[in-house]
Amino acid sequence: MESINTSTKLVGLIGNPLGHSFSPVMQNRAFKKMGLNFLYIPIEVEEEGLGDVIRGIRRMNFAGFNVTIPYKIKVIEFMDDLDDLAKLIGAVNTAVITKGRIKGYNTDGEGFVRSLEESAAFHVKGSSVFVIGSGGAARAITMTLAARGAERLYICNRTGERAERLCQDINKGVRECAVAVSMEPGEMERILKDIDILVNATSIGMHPNAGELPLDMSLVQEGTVVCDIVYNPPRTEFLNQAAKKGCTTVNGLGMLAYQGAEAFALWTGIRAPVEEMVNALTDKTKA
Ligand code: NAP
């Protein structure tokens, strides 16, 4: 902290509430590791203050900021430019400030794909993926999977119309590859027999409801790569039960680290120390 001075580049995390966020610890460890004079700070703000905060940030020594729940969509109105993928997703989780202009990105989907590639050595191109959920994170993941060449995306959601709308957006905006699936067990069973990757992109199983499952586990096939984007707890009941069936499992901490690594690279222009970021997250989950 004694090294903070007028040259220190600031990066913020805008959201509400932020008490349980892992990002400040992860990003500050990464800045320290790389010897950068950067500081990452949480900025908890009520919705009516969001515009004022971003106007202030624009005038200060900020390299950019992250955005989290509930402002990933709302924040778009304060961007000067929008990356193409963020535009398709319709949400921003990372902003970069260059000469006073703010450009919005979405690194969640890329974080998910990199985590899958690194943790399960799995390549998305040509794969068949079943995603449960159609909220903000599911949108980012599925749009990125489509852009990265997934052969077929099956999407189901508690609110079926959201899954249908998401499939239409993918098929129109990226590639004709997404099919909405009902949560009817017979239909799910037929499709789950023929997929490579199964993803829980809902908040089911997240603390304090650890133990809840996103689907009937008897439908999950041995040999499927099973991913959960929930990272609190780091190993959900969904992953525990999938591992017992002989599935390769990928937890949400990897996605969190890699979406952060993508953001780090955008702010600093250098590759992020991903291993250090994963270690910071692991330490935080044990604290
Ligand atoms: P969101 O936009 O609020 O979407 C929530 C999704 O979960 C919707 O599809 C919703 O279905 C579904 N859902 C919630 N409760 C449900 C229930 N009881 N039964 C069935 N479906 C339910 O949230 P989000 O931003 O997408 O985040 C989803 C989860 O991903 C959260 O746990 C978040 O912490 C995690 N996440 C992880 C990372 C990472 O880096 N690992 C990044 C982003 C988010 P409806 O449409 O029917 O409401």
In a nutshell, what does this entry contain?
With 287 residues, the chain is α/β, with parallel strands linked by helices. It has ten helices and twelve strands.
Written description of the protein model:
The protein has helices at residues 23-33, 50-59, 84-89, 108-120, 136-147, 160-173, 185-192, 237-244, 252-268, 274-286; strands spanning 9-15, 38-44, 62-67, 81-82, 94-98, 101-105, 128-132, 152-156, 178-180, 197-200, 225-228, 248-250. The strands form two sheets. The chain has a six-stranded mixed β-sheet, with helices on both faces. A six-stranded parallel β-sheet has the order 9-8-7-10-11-12, with helices on both faces. It starts with 8 loop residues before the first strand and ends with a helix. It contains ten helices and twelve strands. β11, α8 and β12 form a beta-alpha-beta unit. The longest helix has 17 residues, at 252-268. 39% of the residues lie in helices and 20% in strands. The protein is of the alpha/beta class and 287 residues long. NADP nicotinamide-adenine-dinucleotide phosphate (NAP) is lined by residues 69, 108, 111, 133-138, 157-159, 162, 202-204, 206, 229-231, 252, 255-256, 259.
